[in-house]
Amino acid sequence: METETKSGGGGTARHRRLTTAIRESLRELSIQLSLLNHHVSGRLELNDVDLDCLDLISRHGPLSPSALARRAGLHPATITGVLDRLERGGWVKRDRDQADRRAVTVRALRGRAAEVLRLYAGMNASLDQICAGYTDAELELLADFLRRTAGAGRAATVALAGD
User: Does domain 12-132 have CATH number 3.30.559.10?
Assistant: First the structure.
């Protein structure tokens, strides 16, 4: 049955039900994570988009403002305001690029990272408990699914942005 599903057996009623259940679960997850992030940003006195940009800088930085705008899907003028607020709040620092002194890179400051981690501690502990119930092979499968799903989301976003 597993081989049938992977090689084109996606038309079975059970397969369609499971696919629908996954889509519904992903939608619910998206909503719950959005609500969690909204509460975290509120506690940190940040806008939701500021928290998203801070996360992008923390994970992918240092970044140029234009690279951040591309990753965040925001207009460069919007990024200027976001960076102004994050810098005033002590979250990021703008530095001159060593290779091109006209360019700027933005990096996250480590001093306030503990505040963010503390607010996500409950969710992280829950994820640790959930993951403990899966084998390494199952976790590899789930990680692959989530990476591929995130990639599909990026592609859909790019396609919509291009319209």
Answer: no
User: Tokens 């592609």 map to which residue?
Assistant: 155
Contact present, 19 and 27 (Cβ < 8 Å):
no
Tell me the domain boundaries of the chain.
12-132
Give me the torsion for CA of 150, 49, 58, 28, rounded to 10°. Answer: -40
At 64-98, the pLDDT tens digits run 999 999 999 899 999 999 999 999 999 999 999 88
Q: Who contacts 45 (Cβ-Cβ below 8 Å, separation ≥6)?
A: 89
**Sign of the dihedral through C-alpha 70, 76, 78, 79:** positive
